[in-house]
Design brief:
The complex is a heterodimer of chains A (421) and B (318). Chain A has 3 domains: 6-34; 43-160 and 295-376, Response regulator (Rossmann fold, 3-Layer(aba) Sandwich), CATH 3.40.50; 163-288, Response regulator (Rossmann fold). Helix content of chain A is 45%, strand content 16%. Chain A has 17 helices and 14 strands. Chain A has helices at residues 6-9, 12-36, 55-74, 94-107, 119-131, 162-177, 189-205, 223-231, 243-255, 258-261, 271-275, 300-310, 318-337, 342-349, 356-359, 403-406, 410-413, and strands spanning 42-48, 83-89, 112-114, 135-138, 155-157, 180-186, 208-215, 236-239, 264-268, 285-288, 366-367, 374-375, 378-383, 395-401. In chain A, α13 (318-337) packs across α14. Helix content of chain B is 71%, strand content 2%. In chain B, α13 runs antiparallel to α14. A two-stranded antiparallel ribbon of chain B has the order 1-2. Chain B has 15 helices and 2 strands. Classes of the chains: A alpha/beta (421), B mainly alpha (318). At the A-B interface, α2, β2, α4, α5 and α7 of A face α3, α11 and α13 of B.
């Protein structure tokens, strides 16, 4: 019997096809492997708007979370398992955020969820997390309802509510500047709720509102609003705009010399915004949700040093701490309860106090049982034109107020928690 | 495949087998069921847009408006009217379809860039209504507080609320019904008149086809289909937000249609699949995922103006 030649059995085309398939398989390997990877590592899914208007704070939150994960892994992981952080971009879009949440839950089988800077996305993710009974920490979305009337048993929040922010500054601004306030407010839900909370406080204190300018998100020219605000002759102009809008508005206030006539103040200010301003425009009274330059706070120096290593030598912002605290909360409570069961962990987080190596600030910092809101300190002070101890030391803290002193009582938040049976 | 645009029966069978078995093979290639549902919903939206763009020859750049109206209509109906998924879908479709029909009547005399600009304007009007009307729509935070309800069909109870696979098949059934209707319309004399208008409007007019009326009906039907897709999108996310109405989504839908092949019935579905899967996969690797979509889009427009399905067709002819 004649032995057929190899070339006759395996044709040229078959060889090419095999090679091509093998090549494609190489390309597709990570795609297929991701689904098939073992369940050994403990997975934390993090969703944040890495592209779009909130990209800067979102990236800083991720950096903080990564630091927490690397510290955990260096110390032997969580419950004896290595920790893996899976980061997804929500692109500031609810549909994308929900899709990414489902992806993390259904395909990657994450044990915890963190996110999002955008409140709307955060609430939508919270819904997915509840459907799937997964512990979710909202790292950076401020809308009241997350720990208010839409609160959920599985959802905790690290950053402030808008009510807490306005309560933290109202009395101080009133005493310092006087009773006639004029608002410059971003025209969407966050701005509206913040303004309403400040108005309520102003009324209680016996002040007068000389007017409110509603500015669309993404406004670049604030001149018309600023001229109107100055003409109303208030004692203080309250800026509630955020991010790039804050940067543009402050620049124009200085250009027009309005700050020489009327003091400028506001609620939430972020280091990311101050860093983006020319030195002469770093003005006004604000609150920070966390600030890096605090005297005599244990473990703070290590945190700053660790962030500097990964942040091109820059100091951490509040957003770094939010990401860090979110991951550490999960690690601490899981270690305490020795489980990843969401219901048990959520119960254990009620009135859970953050230890000094995580809280990195004075006062008692704990998750309030009634609405799952973290009671974190408010740092009140003034912007500085030039850094004092460091080029990024752009804020002079004058007062640190405990979170539970400014948070409205649970009964006023509208939160009613329904625990699964 | 012939010039008439009819899809080969073998290809049709392949499409439906792939769609029907999606929950079983998606997991094996690194996907997940919700991704399949998203492809179907956005595919239906892109096919609805293509009903106008590819088969009537007018470009609407604000179709997200009707998509979002369908989503808000469905969400509001579930929240305030009754806890019934089919009723909510119907009301959402009617809301978008009716507004589309009324406003569409005002733009049938516009052509080309003017038509596109008026549709963008419509889209932004509804976007800002959704963005600003906090009391009704939840404003920037989006509309929440509703969720899809299990189906009760006679003695059967189908839990599409908690079961992702059941919901996928519900979406697939809706998708099948909608595209079957769309295909029937395109094969009817009415559909042929639309093709005639696309190919040569003046000639169609001389042949006695009431061009404006046809474009109006086509626009209204396209709005009905895309509102239906929007309603399904609201059910998929249990959420509606102003970005559902934004012109950037309209742009994405146009990209999907052109990417897949706007002269082909199934082209937009392929375009949506490529778009959604690329977004899902590449955006986990890099934040610059849009650049990849952009590059692919540029390559398709430059080298394969008939879209990805057009490549297949060229090969089969050669």
């Amino acid at each position: 019997m004649e032995v057929p030649r190899i070339g006759a059995v395996i044709g040229r085309r078959a060889v090419i096809r095999t090679v091509a398939t093998a090549g494609l398989a190489q390309l597709a390997a990570p795609f297929i492997l991701r689904g098939a990877r073992g369940d050994t590592p403990l997975r934390i899914g993090m969703i944040d708007p890495l592209t779009g208007a909130y990209a800067a704070p979102a990236r800083n939150e991720v950096m903080g979370a990564e630091l927490a994960v690397s510290r955990l892994n260096a110390a032997g992981g969580m419950l004896g398992r290595p920790v893996e952080l899976l980061v997804e971009d929500s692109a500031n879009d609810v549909g994308t955020g929900v899709q990414k949440a489902r992806k993390l839950v259904e395909r990657d089988h994450v044990d915890f969820l963190i996110g999002d800077v955008n409140s709307a996305v955060a609430q939508a993710i919270a819904q997915v997390a509840m459907e799937n009974k997964i512990l979710h920490i909202v790292s950076g979305g401020h809308t009241d309802t997350i720990t208010g009337k839409d609160c959920k048993w599985n959802v905790y929040r690290v950053c402030n509510t808008t009510r807490m922010e306005s309560n933290a500054v109202s009395d101080i601004l009133f005493k310092k500047y006087g009773k006639k306030w004029h608002f410059i407010t971003p025209d969407y839900t966050f701005g509206h709720t913040l303004q309403a909370a400040l108005e309520a406080n102003l009324k209680r204190l016996g002040g007068i509102e000389t007017g409110a300018e509603l500015t669309p998100l993404g406004t670049t020219d604030f001149s018309a609003y600023l001229i109107k605000a100055r003409a109303a002759n208030p004692d203080v102009i309250i800026l509630l705009v955020q991010g790039q809008d804050m940067v543009n508005c402050l620049k124009q206030i200085v250009q027009f010399g309005i700050d020489k006539e009327v003091p400028i103040a506001g609620t939430q200010q972020e280091l990311e915004s101050l860093e983006g301003l020319p030195s002469e425009a770093r003005i006004g009274s604000w609150m920070f949700e966390w600030y890096w330059n605090q005297p005599n706070v244990p473990h703070l120096a290590e945190f700053i040093a660790d962030i500097r290593k990964v942040n091109k030598g820059r100091v951490p912002t509040a957003r770094h701490w939010f990401g860090f605290a979110s991951v550490m909360t999960m690690a601490l409570v899981a270690a305490q309860e020795k489980t990843t069961d969401a219901v048990k962990l959520a119960h254990a987080l009620s009135d859970f106090e953050l230890p000094p190596e995580v809280k990195l600030q004075p006062n008692k910092v704990y998750y309030r049982a009634g609405d799952h809101q973290l009671m974190l300190s408010a740092f009140i002070g003034e912007a500085r034109a030039h850094g004092k101890d460091d080029p990024d030391d752009l804020f002079a803290v004058q007062q640190v107020v405990a979170g539970d002193a400014v948070a409205p009582p649970v009964a006023d938040t509208g939160c009613v928690l329904h625990w699964p049976a | 495949m012939k010039e008439s645009g009819r899809t080969h029966p073998a290809v049709l069978v392949a499409i439906w087998v792939l769609l029907l078995l999606a929950p079983y093979w998606l997991g094996l290639v690194g996907g997940y069921t919700a991704l399949g549902a998203r492809v179907l919903v956005l595919g239906l939206a892109a096919m609805s847009l293509n009903f106008l763009l590819g088969f009537t020859g007018v470009l609407s750049f604000g179709h997200a408006a009707w998509f979002g109206l369908g989503a808000y209509g469905t969400g509001l109906a579930l929240k305030w009217v009754a806890a019934s998924t089919p009723l909510a879908l119907l009301l959402g479709t009617l809301l978008g379809g009716a507004l589309g029909a009324v406003l569409g009547a005002m733009l049938v005399r516009r052509r080309g860039i003017y038509f596109a600009m008026v549709t963008i304007a419509y889209g932004q009007v509804f976007y800002y209504i959704a963005y600003r009307w906090n009391a009704l729509t939840g404003g920037d935070d989006g509309l929440r507080g509703f969720s899809r309800q299990p189906l009760e069909i006679g003695p059967w109870h189908i839990d599409i609320a908690a079961n992702g696979v059941a919901f996928y098949y519900f979406v697939l059934a809706c998708f099948a019904a909608a595209v079957a209707l769309m295909a029937l319309l395109l094969r009817s004399p009415f559909g042929h008149s639309l093709l005639a208008i696309r190919e040569n409007e003046r000639r169609a007019r001389f042949l006695g086809i009431p061009v404006e009326f046809h474009i109006w009906i086509a626009f209204a039907l396209s709005c009905v289909f895309i509102s239906f897709a929007g309603g399904l999108y609201a059910l998929l996310n249990n959420f509606a937000d102003p970005n559902n109405l934004h012109y950037s989504l309209s742009g994405d839908l146009v990209i999907m249609a052109v990417l897949g092949g706007m002269r082909r019935f199934w082209g937009p579905l392929l375009g949506a699949a490529v778009f959604v899967v690329l977004q899902d996969y590449v955006s986990s690797l890099t934040t610059n995922w849009m650049s990849f979509i952009g590059l692919l889009f540029v390559a398709v427009v430059l080298f394969f103006p008939r879209g990805l399905l057009g490549i297949a067709r060229r090969r089969s002819l050669a």
